[in-house]
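Aim 2 progress update. The chain analyzed this quarter is reproduced below.
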Amino acid sequence: MSALALVLARSVVVLTGGYRDKHVAYFSCFKRPEKVVVIANGIDVARYRRAAPRPPAHMVRIGMAARFTDTKRQDLLVSALALLVRHQPEVNWRLSLAGDGVCHAQVKALVSRLGLGNHVELMGNLDQADLVSWFQSLDFYAHASEGEALSTAMLQAMSMELPIVASAVPGISNLLMQGERQFGLLAKENTPEAFADVIRLLQSNPDLQTRFMADARDLVIRLYNNETMFESYNNLVQGSRN
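Predicted structure tokens:
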């Protein structure tokens, strides 16, 4: 975004308070910081809701939905799964990756190299109906990334009441850790070992899972639903006309 556009715009919308602070600090052209408005992404919480509890299964299904790019780290989850399979062979671990992109072939090759063909499924791009069904098939949601603005897939997983493990990076940490409340577990480092550790911790702690599930959906309903987003944009547009 050019400095001239920022000067001429009546308002500049960003997704998070962190991005607002960065814009105000970085662009000296802002004479009125109040013109930078935070409007978070919103999702359809009625569509993305938990189905009836699934019957106990003899496997643990972990999923991530994202484009396969350099900044998304599906490779970390594949390598973490290899550790889980090696150290807990009594658990039938499964990893399901939804999405496509430039790094898809690289991740597919890693799955083959680690001998995880029976443990990892590459789903490709899913339409909205299939995506909801896919979320409903999971036990946990994992999101490995080098950084996010505000991940729609994470909001969808939270709305579906899926326990979450994710990278401790900007855009994720501030979503899962808000004030005194915690809505998922963060891997201490972006390494396979760190992800395997937090997945094991969450998988072995049903009480922690239950707390995260209810609290996360409540957070999304309050702050990240599409009606709130639409209302915020409408108020912004109406205000600019006055």
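The chain has a mean pLDDT of 88. Residues 39 and 232 are 7 Å apart (CA to CA). These observations will guide the mutagenesis experiments scheduled for the next reporting period.
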